[in-house]
């Protein structure tokens, strides 16, 4: 039964709803709707001028309606009179195929048709920085190897514990928080769930972390590589596939190497096969490519992949199988669109299952040190343009994500690349002036 948002408001004392949708670049767009008006909006959606956000639409298009999915509603733990609700975009009463949450729902349904339920966890790393964005916020956080730094973690207790308290209150089952490998960097982990739920929580998490950081006079950034020489913000995804009831993990088979079932291996095969094209979505910004393929950081390792390889419990490869019944994709970064991340994982994985894809050999080497010995594994794209071209070439993946999405995404992202290339930089002046 669909939750009645108007009743929900009355019961919880909610005065306003944020009807929120995510555009192609991951921007969260919302209207603040008084509870008195939510009944009509729940039925018809809130109207937006789609062109004003990062969607491939023109100013002449009719209204985009964001129709709330009431099952996603979350009362803001830090502002209880407001509730956030994720919405699905329609236009002329039709679902908008390029809208990320609409597309993810379609892929979840496709997996269900094959009897599969994809469950994932994400690890969205972030930095707490000064409000003006220029430096990290803690002047004492200067260790060469700052990972798990006890002292620095406790100096940010007020922010981290407040966010973790809220996740506990929301029932997300958070289980650990730590200082990560870069100065000023943190990670908070909560339990995995169905792909759509994880995408909604991932979106809300970013909104919550930024909001609470701002409340404390700071700023949170998920930018892939905010500081040269420091480890970047990854957003690893852990993936398992279950039966429709969610009782049997179809990826688990303790008799197989790494405890990964034959079906799990073909899903992984799909990820490996489409990896270079995947990067166009998992590493969606110009800055993303300064995290992957990066030189060694001050801490000693980037913790990001540079090549399309997989392994057991070893963090130097693109895919790690940390234990039975799941694998970890270490490619995505903090700029990834939460819905597109889940959608492209499902699309690539289903393609792998359908074609019985072989993930190829696993390598149990230190890729950072001995990667050169794996000569036939493809290098990951070196920049956004490379990745977009890989995506263009990958007809199967393009089709799986749908023509409407693929053409819109490519058009918008090529626009971003062209905007980047039109910049005149100090570097080119410096290297070319006296040529
Ligand atoms: P690490 O840093 O070692 O990669 P974390 O504990 O930070 O691991 O994150 C692990 C993520 O994987 C969490 O979101 C967790 O809920 C998720 N996870 C654990 N088991 C599974 C599983 N079977 N399927 C999908 N995700 C899982
Ligand atoms: Mg107006
Ligand atoms: Mg982690
Ligand atoms: Mg981490
Ligand atoms: Mg990880």
From TrEMBL:
Superkingdom of the organism of origin: Bacteria
Ranges for domain GS catalytic: 100-435
EC class name: ligase
EC numbers: 6.3.1.2
Classification via PROSITE patterns: GLNA_ATP, GS_BETA_GRASP, GS_CATALYTIC
N-terminal signal peptide: none
Entry-linked Gene3D superfamilies: Glutamine synthetase, N-terminal domain (3.10.20.70), Glutamine synthetase/guanido kinase, catalytic domain (3.30.590.10)
Keyword list, A-Z: ATP-binding, Ligase, Magnesium, Nitrogen fixation, Nucleotide-binding
SMART domains on file: Gln-synt_C
GS beta-grasp domain: residues covered: 12-94
GO terms of molecular function: glutamine synthetase activity
Cofactor section: Mg(2+)
Protein task: Catalyzes the ATP-dependent biosynthesis of glutamine from glutamate and ammonia.
Protein name: Type III glutamate--ammonia ligase
Species of the source: Rhizobium puerariae
Gene: glnT
């Amino acid at each position: 039964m669909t939750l009645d948002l108007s009743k929900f408001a009355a019961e919880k004392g909610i005065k306003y709803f944020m009807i929120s949708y995510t555009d192609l670049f991951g921007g969260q767009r919302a209207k603040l709707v008084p509870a008195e008006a939510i009944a009509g909006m729940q039925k018809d959606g809130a109207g937006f001028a789609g062109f004003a956000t990062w969607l491939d639409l023109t100013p002449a298009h009719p209204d985009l309606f964001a129709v709330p999915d009431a099952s996603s509603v979350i009362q803001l733990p830090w502002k209880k009179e407001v509730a956030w609700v994720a919405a699905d975009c329609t236009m002329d009463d039709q679902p908008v195929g390029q809208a990320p949450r609409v597309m993810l729902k379609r892929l979840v349904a496709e997996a269900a048709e094959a009897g599969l339920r994809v469950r994932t966890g994400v690890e969205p790393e972030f930095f707490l920085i000064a409000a003006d964005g220029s430096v990290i916020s803690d002047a004492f956080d200067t260790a060469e190897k700052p990972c798990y730094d006890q002292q620095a973690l406790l100096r940010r207790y007020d922010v981290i514990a407040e966010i973790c308290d809220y996740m506990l209150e929301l029932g997300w089952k958070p289980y650990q928080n730590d200082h990560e490998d870069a100065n000023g960097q943190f990670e908070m982990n909560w339990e995995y769930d169905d792909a759509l739920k994880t995408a909604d929580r991932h979106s809300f998490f970013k909104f919550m972390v930024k909001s609470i950081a701002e409340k404390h006079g700071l700023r949170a950034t998920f930018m892939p590589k905010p500081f040269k020489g420091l480890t970047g913000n990854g957003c690893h995804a852990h993936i398992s596939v279950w039966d429709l009831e969610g009782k049997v993990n179809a990826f688990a088979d303790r008799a197989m190497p790494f405890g990964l079932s034959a079906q799990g291996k073909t899903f992984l095969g799909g990820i490996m096969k489409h990896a270079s094209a995947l990067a166009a979505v998992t590493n969606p910004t110009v800055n993303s490519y300064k995290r992957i393929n990066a030189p060694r950081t001050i801490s000693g390792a980037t913790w990001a992949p540079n090549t399309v390889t997989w392994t057991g419990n070893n963090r130097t490869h693109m895919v790690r199988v940390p234990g039975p019944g799941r694998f970890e994709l270490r490619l995505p970064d903090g700029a990834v669109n939460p819905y597109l991340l889940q959608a492209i994982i499902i699309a690539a994985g289903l393609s792998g299952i359908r074609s019985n894809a072989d993930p190829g050999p696993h390598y149990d080497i230190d890729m950072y040190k001995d990667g050169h010995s794996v000569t036939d594994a493809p290098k990951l794209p070196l920049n956004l343009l490379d990745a977009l071209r890989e995506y263009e070439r990958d007809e199967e993946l393009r089709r799986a994500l749908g023509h409407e999405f693929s053409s819109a995404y490519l058009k918008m992202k090529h626009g971003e690349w062209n905007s980047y290339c039109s910049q005149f930089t100090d570097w080119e002046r410096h290297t070319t002036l006296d040529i």
